[in-house]
Write a structure and sequence with these properties.
The protein has one domain (about 5-80): Ribosomal protein L30/S12 (60s Ribosomal Protein L30, Chain: A, 2-Layer Sandwich), CATH 3.30.1330.30. Helix content is about 40%, strand content about 25%. The protein is built from 4 helices and 4 strands. The protein has helices spanning about 5-10, 15-25, 40-50, 60-70; strands at about 10-15, 30-35, 55-60, 75-80. It has a 4-stranded mixed beta sheet with strand order 1-4-2-3.
Length: about 80
């Protein structure tokens, strides 16, 4: 499963604002987007990642992505953050 990387990552950012900040600051190595998240939200993140040259990986659901991030609610986007 692609979200296993999120589980194993030392640092992650969860949610649109934190993930966008990590991408813009060039601190993210990979961004994960839930397939069932609102496209009006995720399309902006995918475009930002494309602009910054950061790979985007799609995961099956917000619930799975949230669980991989260690939170009890769904997550639309998350990123692996480099120190």
């Amino acid at each position: 499963m692609s979200y296993e990387k999120v589980k194993q990552a030392a640092n992650i950012s969860i949610g649109m604002k934190q993930t966008a900040r990590a991408v813009e600051m060039n601190k993210s190595s990979e961004v994960f987007v839930a397939k069932d998240a609102d496209p009006r939200i995720t399309i902006k993140m995918v475009a930002l990642c494309k602009k910054e040259g950061i790979p985007v990986t799609y995961v099956d659901s917000m619930k799975l992505l949230g669980k991989a991030c260690g939170i009890d609610v769904g997550a639309a986007v998350a990123a692996i953050v480099n120190e």
